[in-house]
Design a protein that fits this description.
CATH architecture of the largest domain: Alpha-Beta Complex
Radius of gyration: 22 Å
Distance between the termini: 40 Å
Order of helices and strands: HEHEHEHEEHEHHEHHEHHHHEE
Strand order of the largest sheet: 3-2-1-4-7-6-8-5
Low-confidence stretches: 351-355
Number of domains: 2
Structural class: alpha/beta
Mean pLDDT: 92
CATH class of the largest domain: Alpha Beta
CATH topology of the largest domain: Spore Coat Polysaccharide Biosynthesis Protein SpsA, Chain A
Largest sheet: 8 strands, mixed
Length: about 350
């Protein structure tokens, strides 16, 4: 396999203000079999990202570093960086991966082999998510459980289904299919450029494979609460395809079943203790419902590679997730803009076909 893969994959890593992650990401890619080149695009970083990348060139011969400054009008930063790297890439396969993603040993060889065996044009992973702080443990797993319902792996991977999705943390695509879909230039203004690129590939007759990927890659998405707040505000409304009704249905479900239900049980127990009310039957019913909800959440977490014990953070997670859903809808529908890494992006008005 190593001989078959030699110099066939170009890896493109967009990076803006990623000094905490970039070295680990680049080294984990450099250790993979089959890498022809690593093209890291420093997207006008204001921290030490550029310095770290330049220093890594002496350690990793396959690494090429491109420094960009001004963002052209009409482009989102990540799409511009990805397109810049892709123009320089020479591989038959392109792997777009985030600067906060660490690749496990042997993952690239295994996934290229899988894509070619199945005949996939684009293979994407939902990597494992490293959660450290209480707010990460509360929000990140819950968001991914709901995303797995919105974008079911089996449906996305089904040629007969119109469903399409990808995760820019790990997006492996044939160069031919990438060019045929118009590449990142075709999705230059999209905030969810990964999902939109996957839709174009599938609409053009390409085959998608979308997989849970904790065994192959791991990401820590946000270092601070503020980053997490901005990141999900930017993405959630779009991940719900700008469908306000569907977003509000999720908000109601989470607010009632994940946040309010345990609190109702506690209130009923207090009523029984202090006022000797006849709330015992109601308390039992609420307890069973809350227990069932917690158990199904644990099962969903395990399927995605999370520690099932993170279900203990469901109540604060539901509260924060609900606020993020509201804030994302407000940002896109009423404030008409979102912020990310020091840049302001206008909320794009959907076409009449809803896209």
């Amino acid at each position: 396999m190593a001989e078959e893969l030699r110099e066939r994959v170009s890896v493109v890593i967009p990076a803006r203000n990623e000094e905490a992650n970039i070295a680990r990401a680049v080294r984990s890619v450099a250790a993979q079999q089959g890498v022809r080149e690593i093209i890291a695009v420093n997207d006008g970083s204001t921290d030490r990202t550029g310095e770290i990348l330049d220093a890594l060139r002496g350690e990793i011969p396959a690494l090429r570093v491109i420094h960009t400054e001004a963002l052209p009008e009409g482009w989102a930063g990540k799409s511009h960086s990805a397109a810049t790297g892709a123009r320089q890439a020479l591989g038959e396969w392109l792997l777009f991966t985030d600067a906060d993603t660490e690749h496990r040993a042997g993952s690239l060889a295994a996934l290229v082999e899988r894509a070619e065996r199945i005949g996939a044009d684009l293979l994407s992973l939902s990597p494992g998510q490293r959660v450290v702080t209480w707010w990460e443990k509360s929000v990140i797993p819950l968001v991914y459980v709901h995303l797995a319902r919105l974008y079911r792996f089996e449906e996305v991977s089904d040629r007969g289904s119109p469903a399409a999705a990808a995760n820019g943390q790990y997006l492996l695509v044939r160069r031919e299919a990438y060019d045929r879909a118009g590449g990142h230039e075709a999705v230059r203004a999209e905030i969810l450029e990964d999902v939109e690129l996957a839709r174009r590939v599938k609409a053009g007759g390409g085959r998608l494979i979308f997989l849970p990927g904790a065994e192959w890659a791991e990401t820590r998405m946000y270092q601070t609460f503020g980053q997490m707040w901005q990141g999900w505000t930017k993405n959630l409304y779009l991940l719900y395809s700008r469908n306000l009704a569907r977003l509000l249905a999720t908000l109601a479900e989470v607010a009632l079943l994940d946040f309010a239900l345990p609190l109702i049980f506690i209130a009923l127990c207090v009523m029984m203790v202090f006022w000797h009310s006849g709330a015992a039957l109601a308390a039992v019913a609420v307890f069973v419902a809350a227990l069932w909800r917690r158990w199904t959440y644990r099962v969903s977490l395990a399927r995605l590679g999370f520690d099932p014990r993170l279900a203990n953070f469901l109540v604060p997670g539901a509260g924060l997730f609900g606020l993020l859903l509201i804030n994302s809808a407000l940002a896109h529908r009423w404030r008409r803009s979102v912020r990310w890494k020091g840049r302001e992006y206008p909320a794009r008005t959907p076409r009449k076909d809803g896209k």
